Amino acid sequence: MSETPESGPGAPAGPAQAESAPRPPSLLALPSYLAGHAARIGHDALVEAVGRNGLRLPHFAALTALSDFGPLPQHVLADRLGFQRSHLGGYLDVIEERGLVRRTRDQADRRRQLVELTDEGVALQHRLWLVAEQSQDSFLGCFTQAERRTLTTLLRRLVDADDRARA
After folding, report:
1. How many angstroms separate the CA atoms of 151 and 81, rounded?
2. pTM of the model
3. How far is the C-alpha of 51 from the C-alpha of 87, rounded, in Å?
C-alpha cells in the first residue's frame, strides 16, 4: 500500500500514485500550498472579470474601499488597501481620468488630498461588485452556500489575526 499525505506529511507516495496524481500529494497536504493555489484561481477569475470593464484589480479595490468607507485621505486609502502610497497615486490617476473619483485638498489639513467617488464611480463600483460576485460564484461553484460561508469565515479569521499581529 502506498503512502498518502493523510498517512504523514512529507511521506513519499508510491510510484503508481505519484504518476497519476496531478500535483505532488505531499504539497496537497499543506494548507498554505492549497490556500495559495486557490487564491491564484480566484484572483485570476476576479482580474479577468474586472478587466472586461477596462480596469485592473487595484482600481476596483480603490473604488470598493471608497464605497465602503466614504471619502478618505489618499494616504489612509493606501494604508487600508495595503498599497504602496506611491503606487496608489498612479492607480488613482487612471480612475480620476475616467471620472470615477475626484481628489480635493483636505480643508482640515491642506497638505493632504481627500479621495472620493463621483456619481459615475458609485455606479461603476456597483456594477463591478455584481461582476465580482459572479466571478466568485464561478470560482466557488463546487461548494454549497454553507461551505462558502465557512470558508469565508475561516479565511477572514486568518486575515484578522494577521492584521492584529501587524498592528
Report:
1. 22
2. 0.80
3. 19
82, 103 contact by CB (below 8 A):
no
Helix axis angle, 85-97 to 74-81, nearest 10°: 110
pLDDT digits (tens, 9 = 90+) for 135-161: 998 889 999 999 999 999 999 999 999
Which amino acid belongs to residue 105?
Answer: R
Asked if pLDDT for residue 5 goes beyond 50, the answer is: no
Question: C-alpha angle 5/32/8, rounded to 5°?
Answer: 20
Neighbours of 54 (CB within 10 A): 10
Q: Which residue has the cell 480596469?
A: 55
Taking a C-beta distance cutoff of 8 angstroms, is the pair 1, 21 a contact? no
- Residue 59 and residue 94 in contact, taking contact as beta carbons nearer than 8 Å: yes
